Amino acid sequence: MDVRLHLRAPPSEHASAVVKLGESLDKPGAFGALRKVPAPAEWFRTSGSTLWAHDKEVQGISVFAAGVKPVWEDPAHSDGCTVKACGTGPVENYWNAFLGVAYLLGEKGSVLERATGVKLVDKSNKTRTEHRLEIWLAAEPDAAVSKELSDRLRCRVSVAKHTK
Questions:
Q1: pLDDT single digits (tens) 99-144
Q2: Strand 2-7 relative to strand 52-53: parallel, antiparallel, unpaired?
Q3: CATH code, 2-161
Q4: What are the residue ranges spanned by the domains of the chain?
Q5: Consecutive H or E run containing 72
Q6: How many CB atoms lie within 10 A of CB 164?
Q7: CA-CA 20 to 30 A from 126: which of 9, 16, 49, 58?
Q8: Cβ proximity of 157 and 84 under 8 Å
């Protein structure tokens, strides 16, 4: 598993606005890397403070399968999609869902068997609070998988198919 911080940057710089916290880690190593980062409730914009790396504000955190980049151009995502859960609820709910998805990432027989990564992003600004949980999948889920993800995340999810 690869663990990364995502920095707030213009779209043209998103690919390079990443700080690697660990690469090719097993689950205990990935969760060890995650424990080194303060919980998002302490640094998402709604907390009143921010986390900085390389002179840029940290906007999110992700865990992806080893070697898979958090960009649609990665071959693992060529037929994939993103399942997104957005909302204004407590960031702790999204953090707990993020950790749960990260733990089940790629597990055989789980609803997340085809998942390549998970990302938690702070989309808040001065006028609105919004958190987004993104589950990246190697293939578009059927209706049953979408419903199970929605039930597990306890919110409505949207599926965004990657277009080539």
A1: 888 988 888 887 788 889 999 998 888 788 888 888 898 887 777 7
A2: unpaired
A3: 3.30.760.10
A4: 2-161
A5: none
A6: 6
A7: 16
A8: yes
Q: Smallest Cα–Cα separation from 131: which of 161, 89, 100?
A: 89
* pTM, 2 dp: 0.85
Distance CA 143, CA 159 (A): 10
- Dihedral over alpha carbons 38, 41, 47, 49 (to 10 degrees): 10
Which pLDDT band holds residue 161 (cuts at 50, 70, 90)?
low
Q: Tell me how long the chain is.
A: 164
Q: Which residues, 6 or more positions from 13, have their beta carbon under 8 angstroms from its beta carbon?
A: none
